[in-house]
UniProtKB/TrEMBL annotation:
<dbReference type="InterPro" id="IPR016024">
    <property type="entry name" value="ARM-type_fold"/>
</dbReference>
<feature type="region of interest" description="Disordered">
    <location>
        <begin position="639"/>
        <end position="675"/>
    </location>
</feature>
<dbReference type="InterPro" id="IPR011989">
    <property type="entry name" value="ARM-like"/>
</dbReference>
<comment type="similarity">
    <text>Belongs to the formin homology family. Diaphanous subfamily.</text>
</comment>
<keyword id="KW-0175">Coiled coil</keyword>
<dbReference type="Pfam" id="PF06367">
    <property type="entry name" value="Drf_FH3"/>
</dbReference>
<dbReference type="InterPro" id="IPR014768">
    <property type="entry name" value="GBD/FH3_dom"/>
</dbReference>
<dbReference type="InterPro" id="IPR010473">
    <property type="entry name" value="GTPase-bd"/>
</dbReference>
<dbReference type="InterPro" id="IPR044933">
    <property type="entry name" value="DIA_GBD_sf"/>
</dbReference>
<dbReference type="GO" id="GO:0003779">
    <property type="term" value="F:actin binding"/>
</dbReference>
<feature type="domain" description="GBD/FH3">
    <location>
        <begin position="165"/>
        <end position="570"/>
    </location>
</feature>
<protein>
    <submittedName>
        <fullName>GBD/FH3 domain-containing protein</fullName>
    </submittedName>
</protein>
<dbReference type="InterPro" id="IPR051412">
    <property type="entry name" value="Formin_Homology_Diaphanous_sf"/>
</dbReference>
<dbReference type="GO" id="GO:0030041">
    <property type="term" value="P:actin filament polymerization"/>
</dbReference>
<dbReference type="GO" id="GO:0031267">
    <property type="term" value="F:small GTPase binding"/>
</dbReference>
<feature type="compositionally biased region" description="Pro residues">
    <location>
        <begin position="643"/>
        <end position="657"/>
    </location>
</feature>
<dbReference type="GO" id="GO:0005884">
    <property type="term" value="C:actin filament"/>
</dbReference>
Amino acid sequence: MRRTRDFESDEYLNTAGQYETRSRRKKFHTLTGDEQNECTSSGYTACSLNYDMASKKPVCMKRHLDSDTQGSGISKRQIPQRARRLLDLFPKSGISERWGGKLPKSADGIKNIPSPTGQFLQNASSASGHGVTKQNETRGKFRIIDSISSTSQTLNGSEAMRGSVTQMTDEEVDAAFKELLEQMNIKGEKLRALLSRDMAKKRQMVSQSLKLNVAAQVATKHPLDFVQRMERVLNLREDGRGFLKDFMKEMKVQLSVEKVDWIAEFGNQGGIRYILLIMKRLVDTFRKSEMPEQEEDNASLLFDSVKCLKSIVNTWPGMDLCFKKDSKMFACLVGTLTVASRKPPLDFWEMLKFETLSLLTVVAFINDDQFEVRGQVLVSLRDALLNELTEEGRKRGCERFKSIVDCIKKSKRLDVVKKALMLVNIILDVRDPDDTSTEEGKAEADEAWQMRMHWRSEFMRAGLYDCVEFLESCSVESVKAQYDTFCHNKEADFSELIQRFELIKGEYEDPESCFALLHSSVKNSKAEGCLLSILQHLLLITDDFVVRFNYFRLIENCISEIVLPKNCVDPDFRGKFEFTQDIFQTVDSYEENEVIQQLNKRLEYATQLKNEALAKQSQYFMKMNEFSEEIKGLRKHIDDPSAPVPEPTPCALPPPKIIAEPTPELPSATSVPGP
């Protein structure tokens, strides 16, 4: 019996191709004889194993080289990494327990497992205490050593490749450097900036990339390994839940660091299909039953699955595979969002909502119409998302945008609210065509405006009415910016609505044409009965001229407030419609407007009379001066008869009017009602 050491140093190869060392505290545990036999069957000492108290299995740590590995041409530090990679995939201890006792322990049964490590499993099974022989022990040891020898040959070959970089022409270096950047998923302005570097820097980076790629071959697993492991774990059903959780975390990390070719091969081997299958099973589990004890674990699995999809979609091959017409990605993401939005605002649900909304926002923002990649026109991403939202709303019997609005209404994290508002704005961002001068362009612009109006009203009916007060009072800049964008687009569409109303008033000026058009639009529909009822109610209005006028002005104002709302959305049909303007104030304003019009007429008439009086006054004054001169001449003639008699002064001016009573066409001052 041997005791494990208290501390153990673990050397591993990081993603940069460099060896690092980490220390891990180990719990004391006594290994049994069978466990030591299992661990020593590969040629390594049992004292260098760490025993995991949770899984009750020995975990391979730093091991010592056997004498048979000398001269293999590989560093001792690379042995633990290779051995750990194989043993982590299928640990020898507890193989029967991991597979639920379903796998046969014979060599033939293990050979039939479609795995690149099938031969290693055969040796591990034969070394697990069932007829262990010296020949089997030696075979298991040399199976790992053969793999290490092949790795050594790869490393030796890489030295020649790095040496050939200096012999490459500039054109070959440029091509290799561009391919390197594409493999690193670098594009756009950053790609062009890196391509403009000097040739010496490019050669250095290509050489370093070759070195890192060769070193990473020791630590990197093949995509097919993950796909086959995923298939086996899915076949375990409930027994493999713990293994699935660990596997999804490992795959999430692997997809986030691998290059484009690795992700492309992973998708072509069926990895994306298995990820979506995992998500579908988890969503169905949440819909069918409530399991509080497994809720957090299942939410964690969904979170890791969404992160995996996010890493895949971040590459062109990933988008090529995820955006095909038969892809179930949108269905799984919408289902995940629906499940998370109905849950209480716990941390793990909030994290899941944030990641799901982030991925949906990116996908919906890619293109307004159709996504084209490698010459193949794929499904319209906006239509695919809306179709899945519609199907989800049909299943739940609610508005299709309710899951998005619930993330705004029920979430306690403002970053989730921001992402949900961003998704709302992206869905409503149906842009007008560039050329609206043609008939086709006008039709497309009209359709885009109708879609924006309709979808915005759907969001409001789904519960966004209840969030307006919170969003208007929110002081966080990121949330405020998204809500301001929502309001700005809404006001722009409202201006378009007012312009359309002005065009209608200019085009349809008589009641007959308006009624004919309105009746044809509702004929043979449920709305035809409502229109008839409205007209029948209007026939009940009294015959009094003044009262009837006030009736129709009031009805006009009510219809205008319903049809031309300032918030540019449909009314809230869930309850009674509330008018924002007081009815009595409206009626009083109409009456006051009528009185003001009469007073304005009187003022205009009085001003006219005043101007005429001033003109006549001037004429009278001039005529009076003429009469004054004539009087002076007559006085001189009286005093001196020899003086000439002045000529008589003509006068054709009319006599002034005396206004003692108001004119008959204007109301008297006493007839004007008081305020």
